[in-house]
Design brief:
Elements: E1 2-7, E2 12-19, H1 21-38, H2 51-81, E3 86-94, E4 104-112, E5 125-129, H3 135-148, E6 151-154, E7 166-175, E8 178-191, H4 201-205, E9 213-219, E10 233-247, H5 253-259, H6 265-299, H7 306-326, H8 331-340, H9 342-365, H10 372-386, H11 390-396, H12 400-422, E11 424-428, H13 433-437
Parallel strand pairs: 5-11
Antiparallel strand pairs: 1-2, 2-4, 3-4, 6-10, 7-8, 7-10, 9-10
Helix pairs in contact: 1-2, 3-6, 5-6, 6-9, 7-9, 9-12
């Protein structure tokens, strides 16, 4: 067989393979012979039908089988000849009709693994956020606990409804002279200022007194989730039955004992601080991990196969779509977000592919590839964390793909720890909360 190689854009390659006539004839003859031995054809004993009859009856079927055999053999031989390491499956094109007595030409297009060269490994410079737990964070969580432990009590004084009160109301909505579907209720509990109703509804209730009835004329927002009534005018007849308010407990030792096994308020504060510390340590560690990977990629550029980037990007988009769906967003919102963040998806996917190639190369160069000892150690860790028996955890990882993914995850951790041990890490003050959430 003859094979020539064309280098296309980036990591794309094209092999042009010529299968000589002798091999084509041999392949056809072999397949016809097998068919002849097993065919049951009327007028002939099994295995005795002439080859000419077999050819006339099974020509198209044989052509497909022969093509598959010749392509597999020719493609594999061409890869070996040119020392190529392809990624994924090739795109095969026939350059001529496959026929007996004629050479067969086909081409295969594919991408190859990039040549990964580690130019810089030690002294990568990154920033690491200093661990700080402000007293304000602890106080805010205490206030949240206080709110969660609040009791609802009746408002006894004679005064109008105000923001923060809980209104007991009857309401009935009307649109175009007809009752609004699902737009009526009695004894509904509504906290004023919670924005549970459409804009303007809760504000219009402020100032009402118990027993008062009021008609509120509003309009549904143009982007309201129910398209049939979006942007349309609506009126609500509302009666205020009663007013209630939240009674907040004192933030003291009694509250600490009520919400957990804490002897005092100081003990509760210490527990909150420890929980915040653990969460912040995990976040800072993850950011440090991402920082060292970005520094590694920046210092050691790697060409990225388009197919792998597209595959990774599709996975990111699908995960994003799933998370949006869990938050109640539909196809329209997903489409808008996807269009807006398409470039970010692309950049993230390319970074993930680049870092994976570099980590894989370093795992071999540094001899940090995870093995059975690392796997068993991880099983012990999982058992200690979850309280499950090691045997049950190992049963879960009997699946070859799961075990392979875990071993690569362990390998990543080992390589990253090595990189961090050789890096120049500068501690910096925490970012503003808004910057962390952006």
């Amino acid at each position: 067989m003859k094979a020539t190689l064309n280098k296309l854009d980036g990591l794309s390659r094209k092999l042009n393979v010529e299968v000589p006539t002798e091999k084509v004839n041999t392949a056809f003859g072999k397949v016809y012979k097998v068919l002849q031995q097993n065919a049951n054809i009327k007028g002939f004993r099994k295995g005795k039908a002439p080859l000419a009859t077999i050819r006339s009856l099974y020509g198209e079927r044989v052509q497909g089988d022969v093509a598959q055999e010749l392509i597999q053999e020719g493609y594999s031989a061409a890869l070996d000849e040119h020392n190529l390491n392809p990624i994924g499956y090739p795109q095969i094109n026939f350059e001529n009709q496959l026929e007996e007595g004629q050479p067969f030409h086909f081409s295969a297009e594919f991408e190859v693994r990039p040549d990964v060269e580690i130019k810089k490994l030690e002294g990568l410079e990154i920033e690491k956020e200093r661990l700080v737990i402000p007293d304000e964070q602890v106080e805010q969580i205490l206030k949240n606990i206080q709110q969660n432990q609040a009791e609802t009590v009746a408002v006894l004084e004679d005064r109008p409804l105000k923001k923060g009160d809980i209104a007991d109301i009857n309401f009935k909505g009307m649109m175009d002279g007809e009752p609004l579907p699902n737009g009526a209720a009695e004894g509904h509990q509504l906290e004023i200022g919670s924005d549970q109703f459409i804009p303007g509804f809760e504000e219009a209730l402020e100032g009402m007194k118990v027993g008062e009835t009021k008609t509120i004329n509003l309009k549904f927002p143009d982007d309201y989730h129910q398209k049939a009534i979006a942007g349309k005018p609506v009126s609500f007849e509302v009666t205020l039955n009663a007013m209630k308010k939240k009674s907040l407990p004192s933030i003291d030792d009694a509250l600490a004992k009520k919400v957990g096994d804490h002897d005092s308020l100081d003990a509760l504060k210490a527990a909150i601080r420890e929980d915040l510390k653990e969460n912040e340590e995990r976040r800072i560690k993850e950011e440090e991990r991402n920082a060292i990977l970005r520094a590694l990629v920046d210092a050691n550029p790697v060409m990225t196969p388009k197919s792998l980037v597209e595959e990774q990007k599709s996975a990111l988009v699908e995960d994003f779509k799933k998370r949006l769906g869990q938050q109640g967003f539909g196809e329209k919102e997903f489409g808008e977000y996807k269009s807006k963040w398409d470039e970010d998806f692309e950049k993230t996917a390319r970074f993930m592919v680049q870092s994976t190639f570099l980590l894989d190369k370093l795992a071999d160069d540094l001899k940090l590839r995870a093995g059975d000892e690392d796997f068993n150690k991880k099983m012990d860790e999982y058992s200690a964390q979850t309280g499950l028996e090691i045997g049950k955890i190992k049963d879960f990882y009997k699946d070859a793909q799961r075990k392979s993914q875990l071993l690569f995850q362990i390998t990543e951790e080992k390589v990253i720890e090595h990189l961090l041990s050789k890096a120049k890490v500068k501690e910096v003050d925490p970012k503003p909360k808004e910057a962390q959430e952006a």
